[in-house]
Predict the structure.
Amino acid sequence: MKSIKVHAERDYKIEIGISADKEIKSLSEQYHKILILAPNLIVKKYGLRESRRISIFTTPDGESQKNVSVLNRVWQRCAQVGLERSDAIIGFGGGATTDLAGFSAATWLRGIDWFAIPTSLAGMVDAAIGGKTGINSPNGKNLIGSFYSPSKVLIDTNFLSTLTPRDLNAGMAEIIKCGFIADYKILNLVQETVPNFEELIFRSVKVKSKVVGKDFRETRAREVLNYGHTLGHAIEKDTKYKMRHGEAVAIGMVFAAELSRRLSALPDDVVELHRILLRKFNLPTTYPKNRIVTLQKLLLKDKKVKSGKLRCIGLKQIGKPVGIEDVKSSDIVHVYERIVR
């Protein structure tokens, strides 16, 4: 087992290589009551059962669970179970589930303990790490939420063997992102014939935890973790979340790299490396030409927009992210032409 300590509004550990079953049993002995939030598919796949101390709230699958309606039902379940401030919530599932679980814990009784047990690769290296919790709004992704760290993140890598190739590849997008913004060794590791997932997860989590420790509430420094996410979130919204988060971010990273070539002199070979590595994992790198107008409107609803000006995270070189301020409409149109299919 590997362990990483995160310094945020409260310190907590990320433990990699644990047994989820054993950890849930241990937590049920530490807390009087526990409410597990898990998608329907997870509940069935892993045979989750209620007990005297453990209650289960079955969520819809994927992004459809991240809305006010589902959150309200979670609150009702918390009341029904009688969760007190000394009790806890566990988010058992992908990134959408841990986002929902964290926000539920942050808002129930003004904050109770919560634990993340991510079952997707994307959840393990991104969504469950860093204390950003929340739900989606009709106006955009993750516009409603709070910064509220878990008491612990528990990563059972055995879950990876249950993922579809599509979901595993989608998680690789976030790992590749960490390589480009901070750790070039990740970019070497992902090119191996058989990826060492435990090492890739460890290095990616280390990148994110270090950034989070410097800027928990995303005042500025933490924005580097949004590399590829500005256009990525807009694409997710445009596809009504039918595209996986990692798939949308993959396209967003190519867009960010092309924008960086135009505005930050990112070398041509680094831009091309984005396409090479992402295509290795069958991730998309293009998007339909006729969606540009809609995407431009969605981009202006991004959380990083300030005074009506779009800001993006770019690269000067590998490991050197940079904020690109006031991205013009003409820049967006020009760069988008480089990623259309």
Remarks:
- The first strand starts at residue 2 and ends at 6.
- The CA atoms of residues 38 and 44 lie 10 Å apart.
- The chain has a mean pLDDT of 95.
- The chain is about 45% helix and 20% strand.
